[in-house]
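Batch 3, record 17
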Amino acid sequence: MGTYNIALVKGDGIGPEIVDSAVEILNAIGKKFGHTFNFTPYLAGGAAIDATGKPLPQETVDGCLASDSVLLGAVGGPKWDTLPADIRPEKALLGLRKAMGLYTNLRPSRLYPALKAECPLRPDLVENGYDLLIVRELTGGIYFGDRGRREGQYGPEAWDTEAYSVMEIERIARAAFDAARKRRKSVISIDKANVLETSRLWREVVHRIAEEEYPDVECSDMLVDNAAMQLVKNPGQFDVILTSNMFGDILSDEASQISGSIGLLSSASLGATPRGMYEPAHGSAPDIAGQNLANPIATVLSAAMMLRYSFDLGAEANCIEAAVDDVLNAGIRTADIVGASGATPIGCTEMTAELLKRI
Ligand code: NAD
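Prediction for the assembled complex:
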């Protein structure tokens, strides 16, 4: 019977439609389980540029930091594509991640039995489906290391550096093991320890944390090149994948593609406190914005992740996920997931109503 204050950052394009849908679902969950969800809207992205000249107004940062968690739609669109880099809508996402200290990115990918036909993998490879979670380090590694241009052995060259501290590896490893405890208790840590020193340290630290703090969770390693192959060969072997910023960036896109339903994929960014930022894996889809064509499921599932990971409301999260399964099993589809099913597509508001019926 809790009260939770949620900052809503609807953003641009289909952002407002899909976030409104998730709010309706959360309100229904509140009613069913006796919780109160308070929502406060904040501007970010193109909408904020139009209203204030800045992609991430200070009021938004302060509001998100004061909230229990943040639900975000998506930012960006052609209207703002020609602005200089420092005032582009995407700046808002990086700015929020930084201000909120969000160093863990969680990206689930699963094969919905009802959408098996959309999976690009051979049917025999995914006969038993798969359900995995990528835990990606989000604020360290080569994307944040020193870089530059210089004169090298063969003339002008560019360089980037990867650095990971023990502290950064420890905290992302704990995030992965904690997540695994809420799932099937297995972590595969992915690195390139045959070549990279950062990966060798990564491996050492991950195993120490596993042995000292998580003896109940199975832990093993895989080289990233092998992991890229295994994801398309036997995705069912993975429960939680723990990996660095760059490897996670690449593998999470591979994992979302093999699900065949990128419009259904949610994501969470977490830090040292329970407060997180939850958003769909897709963008603002300006081509369909304002036409009641958007699929709200990725955002609704992101709200479910918020319940599970920020508020520790597992039963409530399960209830939302079961409603999504049920809608898909009933053959109810928005246009993006009609595929070869032959179903007549419904809109965002109708999909929301179908989900509400099942909560
Ligand atoms: P996109 O994910 O917005 O759209 C790709 C395609 O998928 C489009 O055809 C779109 O209509 C469709 N699509 C996406 N989400 C959908 C949904 N929920 N329901 C139905 N169809 C959906 O990617 P894009 O076209 O490359 O980018 C559009 C804008 O979004 C750009 O400005 C980009 O910078 C921005 N973007 C934002 C984020 C974010 O806010 N996290 C992420 C990616 C892209």
